[in-house]
Design brief:
single chain, alpha/beta, TIM Barrel, Arc Repressor Mutant, subunit A, 2 domains, 9-stranded mixed beta sheet, 15 helices, 36% helix, 21% strand
């Protein structure tokens, strides 16, 4: 029988979605636009809370590994103009809602939304609070860049009620940092953590990457250990997706500097071991949290969720996306805003919800999404039990190849991913994806 490493190598290069939605984003289409989205907003249950995601596609400098919709600017004018339009879109959305809604989670991503000045953060939060209410236990989070995070920035988050911040660490290896254009000594990150804690933002996330240029197994392990020593609440460990055909700036990363599949596996294993030794609990395929963290408790209770923010404890069924390229989710389906900032702005100024595409979901889609979500969170699912809750027959699924390799086990309708092969959970989830074979859609490698 093949070793674990050989099995991972055999399947690692297979491409699969990350399943932060179902159907996944490549299957959105322009048949869902402004009018349909407006109807979906109007039809929301006014008694149910919503989540709000705000996208800010600007950074001070562009990291070469980045796969996000963002651009670099050192000028304040583009950011100020963007904020004006963002607030206009917020008003358009609020006007279409059936009531003054409550927010359970507010997340600001990018880009680097902390590029907004303290005064702009004040203005943004004032507009949100004027049109929405927050639940008592609402989480308000923002992504920050430790390289450009001042005491005044932290104070703005503190006085506006932010409860969580996410920091991009990626690697502490100077050679790797130079190869990805992100020079960030650990002292800078520690200072950002300290500033956050001083203003009462005690929940801090840190993101790490493996598979980066110039990265070694030892440096990957050392970065994980150093990040854990900063005592974040949660960490995420992602594999770098090298897609220079989609992200032109990634062409600045040399192919010969990238580790091969074997080294990527060893790096992921080394980081996993380091974080577990530091007391973190593994969450799904790529997250880690403290034993008493709400995410760990949600996993143990079988209620952990997965959406476009990754793993989440948010129970809201609707996530409203605002900003260029932002993705939203409602009980009726998914929508994505126009990606190009200028075109997005033109739509908003014209009084239109700036939707570019989306997809309505059927009852069968919802059933398959629920099955896929449990695989991606719990690494096990009873497909028949979930199908019964939707009044539908259990979908057929073929995992014979994965079963023969020892990656999964199947007992009737119960499918379980071997924890030793958790990076391949996406392949098990793909067995329930009826959209996957439709069209030449490219996804990232599974490990």
């Amino acid at each position: 029988m093949a070793s674990r490493r050989d099995t991972l190598l055999a399947f690692a290069s297979q491409r699969s979605p990350r399943y932060t939605s179902y159907p996944t984003a490549p299957h959105f289409h322009d048949g869902v636009g402004t009018d349909i989205y407006g109807q979906w907003l109007e039809q929301l249950d006014p008694g149910e809370p919503v989540s709000l995601y705000l996208h800010v596609p600007y950074c001070r400098t562009l990291c070469w590994y980045c796969g996000c919709n963002t651009r670099a600017t050192t000028k304040p004018a583009p950011v100020a103009a963007y904020l004006d339009t963002l607030l206009q879109e917020l008003t358009l959305v609020a006007d279409r809602l059936p009531a003054r809604m409550k927010i359970t989670h507010l997340a600001m991503g990018g880009g680097t939304p902390a590029i907004l000045t303290p005064a702009q953060i004040d203005r943004l939060m004032a507009v949100i609070r004027a049109r929405f209410d927050f639940t008592v236990d609402a989480e308000i989070s923002i992504e920050i860049d430790p390289r450009h995070f001042t005491r005044e920035d932290a104070e703005a988050l503190g006085r506006n009620g932010f409860t969580r911040a996410s920091t991009g660490v990626q690697s502490f290896d100077p050679a790797v940092q130079a190869a990805i254009n992100r020079i960030q000594p650990i002292e800078l990150v520690e200072a950002a953590f300290n500033r956050l804690r001083q203003v009462g933002v005690m929940k801090i996330n840190a993101d790490l990457l493996y598979g980066l240029p110039k990265q070694t197994v030892d440096s990957a392990r050392a970065s994980a250990q150093a990040a854990a020593a900063l005592n974040p609440s949660r960490l995420a460990v992602f594999g770098y997706a090298h897609v220079p055909h989609m992200m032109a700036h990634q062409r600045l990363i040399l192919d010969e500097d990238l580790p091969g599949p074997e080294t990527r596996i060893d790096q992921a294993d080394a980081m996993d071991e380091a974080l577990k030794q530091a007391g973190f609990h593994a969450i799904g395929i790529d997250h880690y949290a403290r034993p008493a963290d709400p995410m760990t408790l949600a996993l143990e209770a079988g209620v952990l969720k997965r959406n476009f923010q990754g793993y989440t404890t948010d129970r809201a069924c609707t996530m409203i996306g605002v900003g260029a390229s932002a993705i939203g989710e409602s009980p009726a389906g998914y929508v994505q805003n126009i990606t190009d900032v200028r075109t997005w702005r033109e739509a908003v100024v014209a009084g239109q919800l700036p939707v570019a595409r989306g997809v309505a979901v059927s009852r069968e889609d919802l059933m398959r999404r629920a099955i896929i979500e449990r695989i991606m969170t719990d690494l096990t699912v009873d497909a028949a039990a979930i199908a019964r809750t939707y009044g539908l027959p259990m979908p057929d699924f073929d995992v014979s190849e994965l079963e023969a390799a020892g990656i999964v086990t199947r007992d009737g309708s119960v499918l379980s991913v071997n924890p030793a092969f958790k990076p391949l959970a996406r392949l098990a989830a793909a067995a329930f994806d009826t959209y996957l074979a439709k069209g030449p859609v490219k996804h990232s490698v599974s490990v």
